[in-house]
């Protein structure tokens, strides 16, 4: 497994389409409060002792890890004579934790796009343009994110002239409505704060006529939750994704990008822990994956093991061998 500089990664992939996968590290680079420990401290207050004890018992502040553990606990308890009552309480706690996650992201989120300095937008435009390259139809790539927040949305809207991205939403009777098409270039793989499912099942996007965080907060107060994948295990996430036309299309397009033999995949801010995402890379034809890490020596063993699993899967399927290449996240510095 190689480690190279970010500039060298760009030079090495100059003749390839670059698809980009963003994880939580992308958002943390702009807004440190998106770290799991910050979310945890904001999410629970007086009267939440049991919910805190669940996190303490698992020795983590990672919401996804806790949700996954609670989902597994329900599965194990259900067959037992008295297990269904306990499983029902676990389900109630699980749903409450998922709701708190949505509420706390909304609460700590920057209030509007104007809360980020212009220099931040200039920097992230440079980074995204290096990936997207919209001026060359043969090299134009797609952008995928597993993040729920609005930072990528703001960045692409603020820099639309440079990036020329399309998120699949257009004018509809009740606002901006998503429709499936092959021109979409930005995908929220696990949903996002600004996306809601309408009464008729349509996917709508909040508009910019007033601060988005205010609009989202108002909807949550009316028990309308955003389109979010908060399920714990990868199998449960896949089931949730399969139920949503938007999420299903987004994941299918990511699979197609991973299967693009003329492309490379850049990953920023993700440890690739979601099996349904990592498996699509393993099943694909991309031959180089460039992944950012904050501490190369600390990440080396896990990433080497991941590369070995991918290579074994490629050997079984007969697909081209894949190489996982690391670069320092600080060198890319998407937000400056």
What can you see in these coordinates?
It is a single chain. A 6-stranded parallel beta sheet has the order 5-2-1-10-11-12, sandwiched between helices. A 4-stranded antiparallel beta sheet has the order 3-4-8-7, with no helix packed on it. A two-stranded antiparallel ribbon has the order 6-9. It starts with 5 loop residues before the first helix and ends with a helix. It is built from 15 helices and 12 strands. The mean pLDDT is 90. It has 336 residues and is α/β, with parallel strands linked by helices.
| Percent range for β-strand residues | 5-15%
Q: Give unreliable regions as ranges.
A: none
The radius of gyration computed from the alpha-carbon positions, rounded to a whole number of angstroms, is 20 Å
How many helices? The count is: 15
Termini Cα gap = 27 Å
Topology order in helix (H) and strand (E) letters: HEHHHHHHEHHEEEEEEHEHHEHEHEH
Shape: globular
Integer average pLDDT:
90
Q: How many DSSP-defined strands? A: 12
> What profile does the largest beta sheet have?
6 strands, parallel
Query: Percent range for helical residues?
Result: 40-55%
Q: Which class of secondary structure composition applies to the elements? A: alpha/beta
């Amino acid at each position: 497994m190689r480690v190279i500089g970010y500039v060298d990664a760009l030079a090495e992939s100059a003749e390839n389409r670059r698809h980009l996968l963003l994880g939580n590290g992308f958002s943390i680079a702009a807004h440190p409060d998106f770290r799991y420990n910050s979310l945890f401290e904001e999410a629970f207050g007086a009267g939440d002792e049991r919910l805190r004890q669940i996190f303490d018992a698992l020795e983590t502040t990672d919401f996804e890890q806790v949700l996954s553990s609670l989902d597994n606990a329900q599965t194990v308890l259900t067959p037992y004579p008295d297990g269904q009552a306990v499983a029902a309480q676990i389900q109630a706690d699980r749903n409450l934790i998922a709701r708190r996650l949505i509420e706390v992201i909304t609460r700590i989120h920057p209030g509007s796009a104007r809360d980020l300095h212009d220099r931040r937008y200039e920097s992230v435009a440079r980074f995204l343009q290096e990936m997207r390259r919209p001026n060359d139809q043969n090299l134009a790539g797609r952008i995928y994110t597993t993040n729920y927040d609005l930072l990528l949305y703001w960045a692409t809207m603020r820099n639309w002239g440079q990036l020329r991205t399309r998120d699949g939403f257009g004018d509809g009777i009740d606002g901006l409505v998503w429709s499936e098409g092959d021109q979409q270039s930005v995908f929220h793989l696990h949903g996002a704060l600004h996306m809601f499912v309408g009464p008729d099942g349509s996917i709508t996007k909040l508009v910019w006529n007033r601060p988005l965080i205010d609009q989202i907060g108002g909807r949550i107060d009316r028990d309308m939750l955003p389109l979010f994948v908060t399920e714990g295990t990868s199998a449960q996430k896949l089931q949730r994704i399969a139920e949503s036309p938007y999420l299903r299309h987004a994941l299918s397009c990511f699979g197609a990008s991973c299967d693009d033999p003329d492309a490379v995949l850049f990953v920023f801010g993700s440890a690739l822990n979601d099996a349904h995402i990592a498996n699509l890379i393993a099943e694909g034809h991309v031959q180089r994956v460039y992944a950012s890490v904050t501490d190369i020596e600390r990440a080396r063993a896990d990433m080497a093991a991941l590369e070995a699993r991918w290579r074994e899967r490629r050997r079984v399927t007969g697909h081209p061998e894949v190489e996982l290449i690391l670069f320092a996240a600080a060198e890319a510095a998407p937000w400056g």
